[in-house]
Amino acid sequence: MSEYNFLIAIAGVLLIGAMSPGPSFLIVAKMSLAQSRAHGIATALGTGLGVSIFAILASFGVTTLLEQVPSIFLVFKVLGGLYLLTLAWRIWAGARQPLIAQDSSGEAAISLFQAFSQGLITQTSNPKTALVIAGIFAAFVPATPPDNTTLVVAIIAFVIDFSWYALVALSLSTTSSRAVYQRAKAGFDRTAAIFLAAVGVRLILI
Q1: Which burial class, exposed, middle or buried, applies to 165 when counting CB atoms under 10 A from its CB (0-12, 13-18, 19+)?
Q2: What does the angle CA 129 – CA 132 – CA 138 come to, to the nearest 5 degrees?
Q3: How many CB atoms lie within 10 A of CB 103?
């Protein structure tokens, strides 16, 4: 099993990355506070899947292609930045809406699948994250990796990211957390929108 010791270092780096505040944290927090615990966990499933997809792409060298072909990288950056700007606008526009928007049938406006999709798209909207994971592979995976390394790393990436954000969802979907959010919803949403917009602009321009 010593041949798999490099996975410990990869897991540590991935955990630090997951815990770093960013768009994924904001979208999980938003879903957990404004919708429900289930929505937050569904969003966490999406972010976890996004990281595991990046891990698989990195192992197959797709991320290297992004690095070596600037035009492709630029397209992905612009599309990712535009998505974050659109998301920021939606959050800003809904800052003063009730805690859970409902349609005429009384159902929550956002389905669990939509929450999952937002988590997945938010996580994969930044191609620079793919390059970071490619760097992790280059730094820690041996030249001749053990069998099933790609699958194992993808699973580890998913478990770490999902577990962290599921914990965030569980923490922020409590009655007390939602009560605090309800009182400060406009300020929280607008702050989140500004942050997401800043990340989107930076992604497009830098």
Answers
A1: buried
A2: 145
A3: 8
Residue 2 DSSP code: G
Is 42 exposed, middle or buried (CB count within 10 Å of its CB: 0-12, 13-18, 19+)? buried
For residue 20 the two structure tokens come to: 């770093």
**Given pLDDT bands bounded at 50, 70 and 90, which one contains residue 144?**
confident
Residue/partner pairs of 54-57 with CB below 8 Å, 24 or more apart: 54/124, 54/129, 54/130, 54/133, 54/157, 55/133, 55/137, 55/150, 55/153, 55/154, 55/157, 56/150, 56/154, 57/130
Instruction: Say whether 108 sits in a helix, a strand or coil.
Output: strand
pLDDT tens-digit map of 41-75: 999 999 999 999 998 888 877 766 766 778 878 88
CB proximity list for 143: less than 8 A, separation 6 or greater: none
Q: Which two tokens stand for residue 181?
A: 């959010």
Q: Can you give the pTM of this predicted structure?
A: 0.85
CA distance 114 to 120: 10
